[in-house]
Amino acid sequence: MEQLDRCCGVTFSNSGETREISFVEIETAIIDFLENFTAENLLGRSFFDLVSKGPELSCYNNLLYAAGFKGKSRDFIETLLLQLEKADSTVDNPVSINGVVLPAIVLLPVLEKIIPGEQLITVKDKTQVERLANQVIPPEDTADINQVIETYPVRFSMHTVRQMRVSKSVACQYLPFKEELNSVGHTNTWIGQFHQGLLEQMYQNRVIFLLNMTCPVYCRFCFRKHKDSRNEKNPGVDDVSKAVAHVKNSPAIKEIVITGGDPFINRNNMERAIQELKEIDHVETLRLATRSIAYYPQLFLKDNSRWLNYLKAKNLELMQKGKRIEVATHFIHPDEVSVQSLSIISDLVAGGIGVYVQTPFLEGCNDNGPELVTLFQALRGAGAEIHYIYIPCSPIHGNSVYWSPLSKGIQAGRYLRAHASDRSIPRICTATPIGKMDWNTSGWAVEQDKENPDFIWLRTPYTPDYFNRFAPVANDLEVIRRNDEGTIDVRYMAKIGDESLFMGSRPARIKSGTDRVFDMERYNLSKALLLEHSGLGSSIVRVNSTTLARVHKTRVELDVNFTDADIDYIKSQRDIFDVVLVSKTKDPVQSAARIRQLATTLKEVQHVNSLRIRSLDFVHHPDTYTSGLVETLGRLNCLSVANPLRVEIETWVVCADELTPRQQQITQALYRRGITTYFNVALITGVNDNEDEIQKIAYTSRGFGMQFHHVYLAGLEIQNRMNGENKVKVDDIFDIATRVRREGSGREIPGYIIRTDIGEVDFGISTRFTTDRETVKIELLPYSLDYFKAMDPEFTWPETVCCNDNGIPVTTVPLVKID
Asked: Where is the Radical SAM core domain (predicted)?
């Protein structure tokens, strides 16, 4: 057996630092990681196969074998250490041994031994950057880098120091760069808010509490990056109480976003805010914003996970009052995902605290699509909800290197629709100076600014009256104009990238839904048809089964009477992430034994990380959800770092009145076990095809803690049967999306979806409308013939689909009408 107990010296090539490290410590760290965390969701498919399916008995020995070091652990470690000595933040995939690229997440346990510590480091000059990042900054850049550090403070955690050494995509987020001295951009992009003390308000129904003005680590793209903001005096507990008093006297406010800086490094303020806000009746949700889960996980793990335990205890207190805590966090790139961060997310969600992820879209970092699929799948498996992706990055002074044209962000959204689970696709949105808008539903690009090519005009969902209630100054801004339909256009710094995205202005119109009368007969028929068609959908490719349908590259629907052949198909198709259990005869939750059998089987399938149960009993027969059933589902829900299997309940809602306190009670019981309940809505003319009803559904469900997933605009069998000649109007869709965005919480926003014979597409993002006389057709932009042939080599287009000259599939949408 090799003698590994001696130490060796590690000398980093650029910084010149030398460390003494034991060979056995390094070997133990690698073996421990591979023994406990060899999972496809963490390592990626190729490296997972390499270490788990090789000829050796252990994952570590398979790694040695693949790298050409069979039986030579010490030689392998010496080679690895030499690679890490040279590793810096300027090279992608810097550690490769004989063609074996070691993922960043595998290298972190090694780096924790070589570069130990959990302290935070405030950087003073260029020399310190070079030492920490193990890189050489050209002498001619010294003055510029030092000026950047003086202008925009730089701070790292040791966790980020280790990640930056082996990931260019992480380093580009935190390391200072000379282009930060570029003056293009704004000091502040949020200019329409009411501000008083630590309180900011940009929306009628929610406010921001700035509890702390500093962060453990400073992101270079941050919209609060200016030194003046970071040097402000931190508020005290008396300031918190003043802000709480404003909320108490403002009954329209139902959500508080507690942020900073990072609010979790000001414990006194956080505790005061939670304690006082929980006593206000009209406050429903406290959203606690932190990026420390990604870049300083030790904040939550130190002192025996004191913060985690505190949050779970407070959330239980809030839930007793019908309220809840959510944690908002940012992840940008898969290389940021660590065992620690996933563990924190799973711990919070399993304790009944929702965690949602927002992602700035950064040029050269996460701007192509595949890395976003990997990132969102890893986070979703741990329990996180994927909320927003912001296009483009905020146009702040000093961050222009991160800007990309809007068209690139929309293209990434199309990629996600084709390659990611529908439950892993964020809302594609832009944070305008007066509030957020969702692309091509509640807002769009109107036209190029005629005076400055660096600006475009965006249609937003907001109106002058909206701001008159709390921030009338917004209506006096030079960057806004009122359009003919009565909403506000805003002047925004961005490049469009594709002029076909300019949609122009919408003329003034009389809303068709204002005089509609609710049709009870159609409503009752809608419920009956939903129950009738709640079973298996149509497969987009051939699967040779009557109990399984592949409805997307990543998703299958599986009848409760599934067969062994169905399971074999799922095992053989490694792009399948989600399994949706359905039944046409009786609700799947009435077959607890089959659910247990399926969950046990899927837990052993590495690439599947979600079991979704389609349950209409949740709405129509809620007493099916006994305490025993909830307990069973809770036991099956496996939120974990490695090889998770997340359980979710899917249901369908027609009208808001279907949601009662009983559904709220069940939702909370499931939530306490880390199980999300989400629902879809099929738009039915004469029943719910108007902004009042959809807004009411969104508002009610948010109060209950349910997630509003999709509004289906066309293509479902129920719509084929119900809507007939009463086509849904495109302008009504815009009105619905506008109202939900303007009046609701950002956490209420659904996706607007069209079902076709070859899959689902997003209204306005992954579709392009064309007309042929009275026939409405759409181009299905995410898909191609090769995409389907990868799932089924014998695939051919169905009769309802043809291709245009660019190879893009086109189909008819008979149930959508363009005025």
From this structure: 200-426
